[in-house]
Specification:
Elements lengths: L6 H21 L5 H10 L7 H11 L2 H12 L4 H4 L6 H37 L4 E6 L2 E7 H26 L1 E2 L15 H12 L2 E2 L10 H27 L29 H15 L1 H6 L12 H21 L1 H5 L3 H4 L1 H28 L3
Parallel strand pairs: 3-4
Antiparallel strand pairs: 1-2
Helix pairs in contact: 1-2, 1-6, 1-8, 3-4, 6-7, 6-12, 7-9, 9-10, 9-12, 10-12
Length: 370
């Protein structure tokens, strides 16, 4: 996930969009075929290097235009005249962001698929293992550990469904030039956009201004934050069940190597689950700037730009990190399995106490003095 949001990969996605647009413009006859081919040959980070682009940016103070200058310099023939022909910065930036999201969603799908498989395995393994069910932190009845995992499993499957819906709306691009009216690309604007985006594996964003509307990006961050909150829920439950007075599940602990505490080295702290909960706090905080970026002035401004450079990579990296940090799905130890008889007895006593409570109150009433 980190590789997807590294600057060099971002630069390559910019170049991919430039090459796709040039090819589409040549296809409709707006630029020479030789020019498009030359742009395509040079649109890679081995030729247009990140260091060179950064050096240009220091002088002209415009990161996207620095790429355009570097790519133009790399082209020696007809291509030099047609780099970025009829385009505006956010034709490139927004379409490239969608390409990064597409890669990131693919990674996330694998994470969710792995989490689903592990939880399904735990459901089968612990479907008959009795544990205490609690409400308000107090014993309330009897459930199975498998049921607890099954609830989580169904929740993960909802996120898989949501991700499909988010992808359908969010994986879109825009190649319509300044203020989104297509005028800079001429009469073939829509044909150019369609062909370029097909080549990139994206759909047109529909009606836009100079930028793709930020409700789509906010939806992405909200989805990732929602996922993070559910992972936080799983982690919080593990943390509670690992409490000394409960000890029904435990995170893995390598006694011959691992140190739980500087004061008490053998102490088994739920550090993996606590890490998940900590990252979830950060992720939820990223929703606010994503929502704040929805209102932009008129057809665009760049008040969204600086924060998006943080919230896009951070949200996806956190979403990728949390399932792999979470102790729950992969390597949970289960003292409940080791002490099933004791927990079963506890559960039976809870049930008995609930059944006997009305009778106890009745006896207490009869023996009470007036």
């Amino acid at each position: 996930m980190r590789r997807i949001f590294e600057e060099e990969n971002k630069l390559q996605r910019w170049l991919d969009v430039e090459a796709a647009v040039a090819e589409a413009q040549a296809f409709v006859g707006d630029i020479p075929k030789e020019a498009a081919e030359e742009i395509g040959r040079n649109a890679n980070t081995k030729i247009v290097t990140l260091d060179h682009v950064k050096g240009i940016e220091k002088e002209i103070r415009h990161d996207l235009m620095a790429m355009v200058v570097a790519l133009s310099e790399a082209c020696t023939g007809e291509g030099r005249k047609y780099v970025h022909y009829g385009l505006t910065s956010y034709d490139i930036e927004d379409s490239a962001t969608a390409l990064q999201f597409k890669e990131a969603f693919s990674v996330l799908e694998k994470r969710l698929g792995g989490l689903e498989a592990i939880l399904a395995s735990l459901v089968r393994k612990h479907r008959a293992l009795l544990i205490v069910g609690r409400t308000h932190g107090r014993h309330a009845g009897v459930i199975t550990l498998g049921l607890k995992f099954a609830v989580w499993l169904e929740e993960v499957r909802r996120y898989q469904q949501r991700l499909k819906q988010v992808k359908e709306r969010v994986l879109v691009g825009k190649i319509l030039g300044i203020v989104g009216n297509g005028a800079g690309l001429g009469k073939n604007a829509l044909k150019i956009q369609e062909r370029a985006l097909v080549k990139l594996g994206l759909k047109p964003a529909g009606l836009v201004t100079q930028v793709i509307q930020r409700d789509l990006h906010a939806e992405t961050i909200c989805y990732l934050s929602l996922l993070g909150s559910s992972l936080d829920k799983f982690a919080t439950e593990i943390r509670n069940l690992q409490r000394s007075e409960i000890s029904e599940v435990m995170e893995p602990f390598e006694r011959d190597k691992q140190v739980g505490s500087s004061a008490l080295p053998s102490k088994r702290n739920p550090e993996l689950s606590e890490r998940v909960s900590s990252m979830a706090k950060l992720m939820r905080g990223l929703v606010i700037p994503a929502l704040e970026n929805i209102p932009l002035w008129h057809e665009r401004d760049i008040s969204n730009s600086a924060s998006e450079r943080f919230i896009f990579p951070m949200s996806f990296i956190l979403a990728d990190e949390m399932p792999t940090s979470n102790a729950c799905p992969r390597r949970l130890g289960s003292p409940a399995r080791e002490h099933g008889t004791k927990l079963g007895a506890i559960a039976r006593r809870v049930a008995c106490r609930e059944n006997c409570e009305p009778a106890r109150k009745e006896r207490s009433t009869k023996t009470r003095r007036p």
